[in-house]
Prior knowledge:
By secondary structure, the protein is of the alpha/beta class.
Amino acid sequence: MSKLMLKKFISRIAVGSGLLSLVSLRVKNKGLILMYHRILDSVQKEKYFIQPGMYVLAETFRSHVAFLKENYTLLSLPELMARTKNGQNINKCCAITFDDGWRDNYTHAFAVIKEYQVPATIFLATEFVGTNRLFWPEELTFFLQKFNEDSRPESDPLLSRLREKLRNQTSPPELFLDAAILELKSWRPEERHQLLVFLRDVCGTVQPERLFINWDEAREMLASGLVSFGAHTANHVLLDQVTLQEAETEVVASLQTIKDKLGAVPDFFAYPNGNYTNRLKSLLKQHGFKGAVTTKKGWVEKSSDFFAIPRVGMHQDVCSDLALFEARTLLRRF
Ligand SMILES: [Zn+2]
């Protein structure tokens, strides 16, 4: 039985037996913040540029929102955190967040947000807004698939090093890609850059259609009164891998650009990849942020560190039906 089948089986039993209701006592008086990235209507259409574990299908997202609307009080992230800070009741309160500012948040998620009239917050990596740029994991996903399809010989020491590291992880391809991205996150930025330069050179440049929202789309979402925006750096830099000064430049640039382009102050920040340090937390406080979200799994309460706010991440494999979705939110290891 595959891991996913097993999870589906366990989640159904947990829901059916009432076990989940029992577990939910653990999160009584705590708030839930969900983290999404991409919302897609078809995986096939964009397969080269999808990092596995980064998307939820539009129909799945719709079922989540319908379920949440029925069972939770949906609040914007700033509202949820203000209530938490003031010691107000946040039992069964939930905020929806999206990281990065993908164009599909506008083309697919926004329709659902409007249909159900629910609030959401999108964290923007501002230098990607309105551009054809790619994040390195998407670019790498493209190149590695190309490379495999064309079965090219490897002639770069960094690529050999990556392959060597992952030699036990060859199938299925999604797991290989996940493992490759995870491995590369631990490399120095210069090494990642060098590997990409090599792959670009061999495979040719990639020219996908625009993958990130533009400022007009952001303004339209903001004007709906349902969507608010937070900052997520300018260039999606992993902030603990650069100097504090470089980190500050990234943070300030994203803060300022959002203010200039949208006329709204982003009160909250999302650390790219969830990477943070105590110095980064202080830096954000200095620049007036009210809090920052991470990728650490958990629910929020008054005693939570507002500059290391936990969330529950959603991607298609772990939340394709409502039993899985509920288990994902309530069980630690799901
Ligand atoms: Zn991100």
